[in-house]
Amino acid sequence: MINLARVVEVGEENIVHARYVKPMTEKAATSRKFWKVKERSFPVENREGLEVKPGDYVEISVQTGLTIGAAFMVFMVPLILFGGFYGISGFFFVNEGPRAVAGVLGLGLGLVLPAFVNILRKNKNYPHLDKVLTPEELREKVACESDCASCGGCG
After folding, report:
1. In a domain, 149, yes or no
2. Of 5, 71, 120, 155, which has the maximum CB count within 10 A?
């Protein structure tokens, strides 16, 4: 999946911090102002060592398999651990109360487990910086009015 982003900060060790560039509808922009939603930057790996500076528009790629794996860790692991702890506690407890508490403990463990896995992982799975866009390429990608997401500008 290819997306457009704007470089916010150039860090060390080939890590760049960027924000997505997506045209927002007027309704979405108003809603974001009302709820005071701030745009967050995220790390992007600059493997090729491309010359970038804050304010540059870039094309980044996110591997689909990594996205699916991250979603599984965040959403499914807590549910699996809830069911597992609840089911296994049935061998130890007859009453429903202790079994429910064991299930909630499994759910809590499932919520913090992905964070620990991410901390322990040596190779971070950051999106990759593919290319720095020229002003002409940026205008071409942003001018696309389609919702196909092929250009990365409309998402």
Report:
1. no
2. 5
Q: Is residue 135 part of a domain?
A: yes
Closest CA relative to residue 76, chosen from 120, 115, 103, 110: 110
Three-state SS annotation for the chain: CEEEEEEEEECCCCEEEEEECCCCCHHHHHHHHHCCCCCCCEEEECCCCCCCCCCCEEEEECCHHHHHHHHHHHHHHHHHHHHHHHHHHCCCCCCHHHHHHHHHHHHHHHHHHHHHHHHHCCCCCCCEEEEECCHHHHHHHHHCCCCCCCCCCCC
pLDDT given at position 105: 97
Q: Which domain holds residue 58?
A: 2-63+125-143
Assess if residue 112 is contained within a domain: yes
pLDDT digits (tens, 9 = 90+) for 127-152: 888 888 887 777 777 766 555 555 55
Q: Which CATH number goes with the domain that contains 9?
A: 2.40.50.140
Per the structure, the count of domains in the chain is 2
